């Protein structure tokens, strides 16, 4: 496997949408007999969604880059793998590979300000954007819940649906970031050897394995750092059991739901930009887990209240046209739902110190940075005409955000992982899955 992945050269930046597209154009010009590029659709903003095909094997493999636009590791991974797989046909492992370069180019462009240069948790937050759930192409596939139709596919989703229908892939790999803390994976199956093979890549790169609870409701733990990717139905059933209305939290099915008709296996790679060894601290804390999760719930509600207050004070200047406004409104909804779910946990066991750190600085810390960064961008966008009311709100909330940033920079700044190591982990995980697919082993 390592001879296929090869040595990933050191890079200091993630490719932008245009840079990755330009790389592919040059590749087509250099080796036109080994690469085929097909436009499978257009984004809402008019960007082409392109499928880059390499190889001619019977097994179809689909790799999706940037399903969430704040998660650019996958674009760097796709660029590397394309360079390797087009060297000769032996590199393709007997498969036909399809690379969707960037599933959400519109959202990705709103994050490109932090793709280059020094990356700190608070610095990235200031240039952060993540769309609301209804505008996430990977989570608005059509499905149903207790007789109710769910999911209004976006143009980007429709493009992916057409590609899945045409290729009937044996494997889909979705490339994600996990922001901070540790690395983990979601799969639809496999065995102990497969799961260990995935997490071994984390250890080899010096990335701790995330040992907390999965962030997808209803997901089962296959092995430390490897979780099952559940179907929409189980996610919805789990939320309902926790007292959360599923259709208030989700706006459609995921890739697994749509590809299930073809028996497609899924692999999701969740890698952090920064790590902290405290996520693996198993020492008992002396605090009950339910109490720790209750604190998280209160923090979530505090963030939601702060954001709601700011939006309310500038409501006369908002009309729903800003992507930041829509994202923040949706984030408030998600935070309140997640708070309800956290409170539903009744386990009496002690939380480990690692679990407390994850709750405080992975979940709550990430929520503060994401909400705060997008709210500042909205206030800056809205106040360009010199509005005194917006300027006052910018100063008021800016002080809160600076306190949040100081807490992170003091207590959980994380250690940044070099980009080439992240690309190596994702590339090795993909090649591991495709190799096992070729050998008829479970994935």
Automatic annotation (TrEMBL):
One short Pfam name that applies is Peptidase_M14
Q: Which SMART domains match?
A: Zn_pept
Domain Peptidase M14: where? Answer: 14-245
InterPro entries noted in UniProt: Peptidase_M14
What protein name applies here? Peptidase M14 domain-containing protein
Annotated organism of origin: Nocardia iowensis
């Amino acid at each position: 496997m390592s001879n296929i992945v090869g040595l990933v050269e050191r890079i200091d930046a993630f490719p932008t949408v245009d840079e990755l597209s330009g790389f592919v154009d040059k590749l087509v010009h250099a080796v036109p007999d080994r690469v085929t590029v097909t436009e499978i659709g257009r984004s809402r903003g008019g960007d082409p969604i392109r499928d880059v095909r390499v190889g001619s094997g019977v097994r179809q493999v689909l790799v999706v880059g940037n399903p969430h636009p704040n998660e650019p590791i996958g674009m760097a991974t796709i660029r590397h793998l394309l360079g390797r797989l087009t060297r000769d046909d032996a590199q393709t492992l007997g498969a036909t590979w399809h690379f969707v370069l960037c599933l959400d180019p519109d959202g990705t462009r709103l994050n490109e300000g932090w793709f280059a240069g020094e990356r700190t948790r608070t610095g990235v937050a200031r240039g952060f954007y993540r769309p609301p759930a209804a505008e996430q192409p990977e989570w608005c596939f059509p499905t149903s819940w207790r007789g109710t139709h769910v999911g209004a596919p976006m143009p980007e989703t429709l493009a992916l649906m057409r590609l899945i229908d045409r290729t009937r892939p044996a494997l889909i790999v979705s490339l994600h970031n996990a922001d901070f803390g540790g690395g983990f994976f979601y799969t639809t199956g496999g065995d102990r050897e497969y799961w260990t093979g995935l997490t071994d890549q984390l250890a080899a790169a010096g990335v701790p394995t995330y040992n907390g609870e999965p962030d997808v409701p209803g997901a089962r733990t296959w092995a430390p750092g490897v979780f099952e990717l559940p179907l929409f139905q189980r996610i919805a059933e789990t939320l309902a059991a926790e007292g959360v209305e599923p259709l208030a939290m989700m706006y459609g099915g995921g890739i697994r739901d749509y590809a299930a008709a073809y028996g497609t296996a899924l692999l999701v790679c969740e890698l952090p930009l920064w790590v902290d060894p405290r996520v693996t601290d198993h020492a008992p804390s002396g605090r009950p887990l339910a109490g720790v999760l209750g604190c998280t719930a209160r923090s979530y509600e505090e963030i939601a209240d702060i954001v709601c207050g700011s939006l309310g004070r500038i409501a006369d200047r908002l009309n729903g046209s800003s992507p930041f406004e829509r994202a923040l409104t949706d984030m408030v909804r998600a935070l309140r739902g997640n708070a309800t779910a956290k409170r539903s946990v009744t386990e009496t066991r002690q939380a480990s110190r690692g679990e407390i750190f994850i709750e405080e600085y992975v979940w709550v810390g990430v929520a503060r940075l994401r909400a705060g960064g997008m709210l500042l961008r909205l206030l800056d966008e809205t106040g360009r005409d010199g509005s005194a009311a917006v300027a006052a709100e910018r100063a008021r909330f800016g002080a809160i955000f600076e306190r949040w940033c100081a807490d992170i920079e003091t207590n959980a700044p994380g250690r940044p992982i070099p980009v080439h190591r992240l690309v190596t982990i994702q590339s090795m995980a993909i090649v591991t899955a495709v190799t096992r697919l070729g050998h008829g082993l479970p994935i």
